[in-house]
Design brief:
The complex is a heterotrimer of chains A (322), B (226) and C (228).
Chain A (H helix, E strand, L loop, with lengths): L1 H35 L16 H11 L10 H21 L16 H22 L3 H32 L4 H7 L4 H4 L1 H15 L10 H4 L9 H26 L13 H22 L5 H30 L1
Chain B lengths: L1 H14 L8 H22 L3 H21 L3 H26 L14 H23 L13 H10 L2 H25 L7 H6 L12 H13 L3
Chain C lengths: L8 H8 L9 H15 L21 E4 L9 H5 L5 E10 L9 E12 L8 H5 L5 E4 L13 E2 L1 H7 L17 H32 L5 H13 L1
Antiparallel strand pairs in C: 1-4, 2-3, 3-5
Classes of the chains: A mainly alpha (322), B mainly alpha (226), C alpha+beta (228).
Organism (chain A): Streptomyces triticagri
InterPro entries (chain A): NADH_UbQ_OxRdtase_su1/FPO
Membrane topology (chain A): Multi-pass membrane protein
Chain lengths: 322, 226, 228
């Protein structure tokens, strides 16, 4: 009985985190982006510096009419947001935020594979949305999504494989247990590749061609309104949380910290995730969108070779140490 | 797919005699197997192209769940990663790039319904026969995690290294063949990028790779395992 | 370790920006630095409804009417490029001011309205008014929910008159305003006359009281003046 309770409690915590963290990241984006542009950002909703802006947005989205275009493929159109969002929820379950097995939703043996596989599934949602909207801009967005995913999945996987090689395990908790501080410089190239490729997979600026608003309106999500659109947005921010959490766990040592070892591990994980999320926002504000060909060239001529070099380096160091 | 699903069903059936009452896992296994089978059937019979690809996702996902139920976690996630995450995305990409009307496309039928059925049944029969013949009433204890990453790695690189390497060479050959074909048919510059991605030792790839070529590259990579 | 510190960046730098001799990726770092610096600076957002904006003294918010000055000469309505000023008036006869005098007729303003949905805030009416009856007011919060209600009548225009600020001070080096110059001239003339009168009376007093000190000089001038 206590087992069931334990599992239920864990899943509940993960679910709450899944709802809360993306909102926090979104609010931070509002504010950080505004201040980086010399603005204040939302100031009214909720009273104090607009802290409830996203809640208000959510209420607004919920009130809007849920429209399915006449020519659309109704069922797939309606299913797509769920397909986009749910994988991230599943991934969050497997990310350990503290030492030991008590601080992770569910221990997954092949953690890295699980996480990357399920993240890749999320992109199917965009594809389905792009196709089912019966809109040429949506279709273009879907195509760009697919091309981007195919280009960036490989370097991401290779970079993650490098860490797995270093740790000698593909379990996320195992990688954290094996983590040493000198891995930081050792795996820095892999970390950058992973982070950049992850940004591209999430379609975050500067890799946001699939939703490039000045070219194709809003890509796959052009025809969406109301709650379904909100789900897509939530998926994007959940993706940021996942990517930053994963990068923190895989490359930055997760719950390892210079001090406060016992009981405060989760603080370190959250802190690293938050810093990375800030970087994600920062990059969005600072850089213009890449062109489609630039994006592909970056993936194939820079990230993939770098990731392979990182794997080679990892292998060499590993053998030398042993 | 059809074959493996039905094979899976037979496997559970073979395990049955030992227990009068099936365990929860076994029931789940059979149910998921049925769902997978149904999804696979819809995949090949539906008239809507993109729906077929999406039903394929369901079928492949069901297969991954079956692997999970057999405690072959590693294989399950690789299945999702490669097939659902890449192959189906590639399929959808190809469909959308060429022709993906919403609604039925009756002209997308090659008219080879009966031969296809015959081949499918023959393949399924062969696989089922092989599996049944190989395992018969063997009872595999799932309590000890037969398919964990450790076990798979050890088996793959200790006992099955030679077939594994042979397979790699085969894939490499297929890859090279794909490059050759794409070079002969298309523009001379397309197909340079695959080299860059596959062969880091050759150093910097030529800058001339167009994005169109790079976009299709992972397709060639992912097609091979099928 | 590969030599570059920002491995994924250089290709992007090559493809997005003009090639430069500097460290690869320095342009990207510069971009990040700019945004980070901006974040630490004070924002420029004006919190409008909470904080009223500080408007420049000659803001063109709305046109106010000082109807006491209006003579219904219609110059403003005729000069208005988009004909947004409506003026109605009637003639009244004013009885003679003095018995036996002539009766005078006078224009009385009945309606003065400006349609601010048409007005383009050119200010020609204000420039052209010879009697200083129209003024710019910095008031700008007069939005309406119906476009017809943007035609504001004389009472509203008169009310805005209270919001017209005093004319801003001139620049230090500016020419003196004409009114002031004229007034000053008149005042100076008066002062001079008064001074002269005073002088002459003082002179008479002085000469009457004690004529020893510098009497010759004063007498000389006095004699001249007297001669004139």
């Amino acid at each position: 009985m206590s087992d069931v309770l334990d599992v239920a409690l864990r899943l509940l915590v993960v679910f709450v985190a899944f709802l809360a963290l993306p909102l926090i990241v979104g609010q931070t984006e509002h504010k950080v982006m505004a201040h980086m542009q010399g603005r204040l950002g939302p100031m009214h909703a909720g009273g104090f510096h607009g802290w409830a802006q996203l809640v208000a947005d959510g209420v607004k989205f919920a009130q809007k009419e849920d429209i399915v275009p006449a020519g659309a493929d109704r069922r797939i159109f309606q299913l797509a947001p769920a397909v986009a969002l749910l994988p991230y929820l599943l991934v969050l379950v497997a990310i350990p935020i503290g030492p030991g097995e008590g601080a992770v939703g569910v221990v997954v043996d092949a953690g890295i594979f699980f996480v990357l596989a399920v993240m890749g599934v999320g992109v199917l949602g965009s594809l389905m949305a792009g196709w089912a909207s019966a809109n040429k801009y949506s279709l273009l967005g879907g195509l760009r999504t697919a091309a981007q995913l195919l280009a960036y999945e490989l370097p991401m996987l290779l970079a993650a494989a490098s860490v797995a090689m270093a740790a000698g395990t593909v379990s996320l908790t195992g990688i954290l247990d094996a983590f040493e501080w000198w891995w930081l410089p050792w795996q820095i190239v892999g970390a950058l590749v992973f982070f950049v490729a992850g940004l591209a997979e999430l379609q975050r600026p500067p890799f946001d061609m699939p939703v490039a608003d000045s070219e194709i309106i809003f890509g796959s999500y052009t025809e969406y309104t109301g709650l379904r659109f909100a789900l897509f947005l939530l998926a994007e921010y959940a993706g940021i949380v996942i990517l930053c959490g994963l990068t923190a766990v895989l490359f930055l040592g997760g719950w390892h910290g210079p001090w406060g070892a016992d009981g405060l591990g989760w603080v370190w994980t959250l802190l690293k995730t938050a810093v990375l999320a800030f970087v994600v926002i920062w990059l969005r504000v600072s850089y213009p969108r890449l062109r489609e060909d630039q994006l592909q060239r970056l993936a194939w001529t820079a990230l993939v070779p770098l990731a392979l070099a990182q794997i080679a380096l990892t292998g060499v160091v590993k053998v030398v140490i042993q | 797919m059809t074959a493996s699903a039905s094979g899976a069903v037979t496997l559970t059936a073979a395990a049955h005699p030992g227990f009068l009452s099936p365990t929860g896992v076994e029931i789940a296994f059979v149910l998921v197997g049925l769902v997978t089978l149904g999804a696979a059937l819809v995949t090949v019979t539906t008239k809507q192209l993109v729906h077929a690809a999406l039903w394929l996702v369901v079928a492949l996902g069901g297969l991954a769940v079956e692997y999970l139920l057999l405690t072959a976690e590693f294989i399950a996630w690789v299945q999702v990663l490669i097939y659902v995450g890449s192959v189906v995305v590639l399929l959808l990409f190809g469909l959308m790039l060429t022709r993906a009307p919403i609604g039925r496309s009756p002209d997308a039928d090659s008219g080879n319904r009966l031969p296809a059925l015959a081949v499918a049944i023959a393949a399924a029969a062969a696989l089922v026969w092989v599996v049944v013949d190989a395992f018969r009433t063997t009872w595999i204890d799932l309590g000890t995690r037969q398919g964990s990453t450790d076990a798979v790695g050890a088996i793959l690189f200790k006992h099955w290294v030679l077939p594994f390497e042979a397979l790699s060479v085969l894939l490499l050959a297929a890859l090279v063949g794909a490059i050759v074909l794409s070079r002969k048919g298309g523009t001379p510059e397309s197909g340079k990028d695959p080299q860059a991605s596959k062969d880091p030792q050759s150093g910097k790839s030529p800058e001339s790779g167009k994005d169109g070529a790079s976009g299709t590259t992972p397709g060639e990579r992912d097609k091979e395992p099928r | 370790m590969p030599p570059s510190e920002h491995p994924p960046h250089p290709p992007a730098a090559h493809s997005t920006s003009a090639p430069s001799r500097s460290f690869p990726g320095s342009g990207l770092a510069k971009g990040l630095a700019v945004t980070l610096r901006t974040m630490t600076k004070k924002t420029v957002t004006a919190q409008y409804p909470e904080a009223q904006p500080e408007l420049p003294p000659r803001s063109r918010g709305v046109i106010a009417l000082f109807e006491e000055n209006c003579t219904v000469c219609m110059l403003c309505a005729r000069e208005c490029p988009d004909w947004c000023i409506y003026i109605d008036s009637h003639k009244e006869t004013v009885p003679a001011a003095a018995p036996g005098g002539r009766e005078r007729s006078r224009n009385v303003l009945d309606r003065f309205a400006i349609d601010f949905s048409l007005c383009m805030y050119c200010g020609i009416c204000i420039e052209v008014c010879p009697f200083d009856a129209l003024f710019w007011s910095p008031e700008f919060e007069y939005a309406e929910t119906d476009i017809h209600e943007l035609t504001h009548e004389r009472d509203k225009l008169r009310d805005w008159m209270w919001t017209v600020p005093a004319p801003p001070a001139l620049d230090a080096a500016a020419e003196e305003p004409k009114e002031l110059a004229a007034a000053r001239k008149a005042a100076e003339k008066l002062a001079q006359e008064a001074a002269e009168q005073k002088q002459s009376t003082a002179e008479q007093k002085q000469s009457a009281a004690e004529p020893q000190d510098s009497a010759a000089d004063q007498q000389g001038t006095a004699g001249e003046e007297g001669a004139q």
